[in-house]
Amino acid sequence: MAAPPSVLVMAGAAAGGPDLRELLGPDRMDAVAHLLLERALRWAGDLGGGGIHTAAASEGLAEAAQRVFSAGSGEPVVVIWPALPAWGPEHAAGVLDDLAAGCGASVGPVFDAGLYLLALTRMLPAVFALPAETWDSPDAMGRVLGAVNEEGVAVGLLRAERGLRRPADVRAALADPLLDEELRALLSR
Hints:
This protein is 45% helix and 13% strand. It has helices at residues 18-47, 61-71, 89-100, 125-128, 140-150, 167-175, 181-188; strands at 6-9, 52-54, 77-80, 105-109, 115-120, 155-157. It has a 6-stranded mixed β-sheet, with helices on both faces. Helix 1 links the parallel strand 1 (6-9) and strand 2. The mean pLDDT is 91.
């Protein structure tokens, strides 16, 4: 991989489902969503020098990715969804290692549904032809890997992570002794 990747943050992606919004209430849910987005943007800034782009809620993944690929000069695009409580250097190292090893795609799954990261070296029509509900469905991993394989591209797999999208995720986060105090305070009020 010669050029550092561009990062596309799916900022308009809905944070949490209705059950989480009911548990936290609208104000805390908005505060959690804002914090997760802020952390994803900070991580994106640390990933590389290819630029950071965001997608609004009204913009689909294919449209946003095409915009970022068109604006670049051949660098990979790393799409991230702000679902993780924490982004670390191990996420960056994993995706950069996959791309440097010649993978045309790298996928970071969320345990129960969806993805937190999808890196691509080019537009893959089979991937972007997937239905919009794919990106946060329990079948996301299988669908995306199937589409990448259909394109004949090598794929790397990052470790699965627990997102913060459901009440069970809040309970798991609060039980985690490594959860930072800022997020702990928002989740446990």
